Amino acid sequence: MTSLAHTINERFTFVDQTEKEDQTAFARDVRIGLTASPKHLPCRYLYDRTGSLLFERICDLPEYYVTRTEREILRERAGEICDLLPDPTTLVELGSGSSAKTRVLIEAILTDRETLHYVPVDVSREMLRTTSVALLKAFDGLEITAVAGDYRKGLCFAENTLDEPKCFLWLGSSIGNFDRVAARDFLRLIRDTMTESDRLLLGIDLRKSRDVLERAYDDSQGVTAQFNKNLLVRINRELDGDFNLESFDHRVHYDEEAGRVEMHLVSKVEQTVRIDRLALNVPFTRNESIHTGYSYKYSLDEIDELARSADLRPQRRWLDAQRRFSLNLFARTDACNLQNPLATAKT
Ligand SMILES: C[S@@+](CC[C@H](N)C(=O)[O-])C[C@H]1O[C@@H](n2cnc3c(N)ncnc32)[C@H](O)[C@@H]1O
Q1: Which residues have C-beta atoms less than 6 Å from ligand 1?
Q2: Domains of the chain (ranges plus CATH)?
Q3: Cα distances (Å, whole numbers) of residue 305 to 89, 136, 174, 194, 248
Q4: Which of 19, 137, 249, 270 is the most exposed place for a label (fewest CB within 10 A)?
Q5: Does the pLDDT at position 2 exceed 90?
Q6: Quick one: what percent of the chain has pLDDT higher than 90?
């Protein structure tokens, strides 16, 4: 792993924890995924520069309630959340993206406190840099250490480098991209990185009707379809592939029993795709799919169970007015001084 820390100025450090072998990892994962049966590609690769910009457009779509509802909770409850965080607190955000919702929290913290150290972590390097520069311009009291790398590298960085109490943020229901076992295991990893005074603020989307869910991931303007197909564009560009976008459909299905939305790219015809840099021919039958992502949904009981199994103690939970989304504040089970344990509030 290469780790390069560039101090841009006294308020901004950019730590590049991406592997020099990023390209190699992408090539390896594409080969593994497209030669497997059934075919699959890891959803983290959806977020190159174009993918990150497309995701920002998704956040504004009328069907994509996820961002709106979480933002609603944050706007209503930012003051309350700040009061539950130790002073000072370093905010460490996993998969920060545009940090648009986090701004609400940053603003609330800086209303009460003079300075704040924010550590956004994201695989999308350009988005991370642009966002950090914009935030530093907007908030005088802010200091940013941006970590370009995956979640695990961000946790490692936090554990080895940050001394102050921390609040880990994992918003946007990104936990839903993990299956239920992997979600528990990853929460345990976060828990093991936390000290007794640290907190985790976790946004988790709730189970709801098929109709609402399938429309959220298959919008009428086709932006989510473009986001999904951008993965093929990325393979074409970075690995010299010859995917014809017109011959694949974006398809979304809600598996109610499993409680997950599945995203697929489905071949409309029998065809063989060539990926030159992998010296690979990938045969597709008609209707064969590449699975490109899950979005698991949770009931409130499932969230409690998830927390228990990861040794985390719910300190507070907030829901939006329509009970579509939950924001959960957790501490380690052995943390002391928890106020209002297990309380739930609606905005
Ligand atoms: C669904 S978006 C959420 C963005 C933002 N947190 C929000 O709530 O709007 C997921 C973000 O996590 C980043 N991401 C995805 N997989 C990641 C990984 N394994 N490690 C680090 N970042 C990741 C993506 O680049 C993207 O910015």
Answers
A1: 44, 47, 52, 55, 59, 67, 95-97, 101, 121-124, 150-151, 171-172, 174
A2: 4-19+58-209+298-346 (3.40.50.150), 210-296 (no CATH)
A3: 27, 38, 18, 19, 38
A4: 137
A5: no
A6: 90
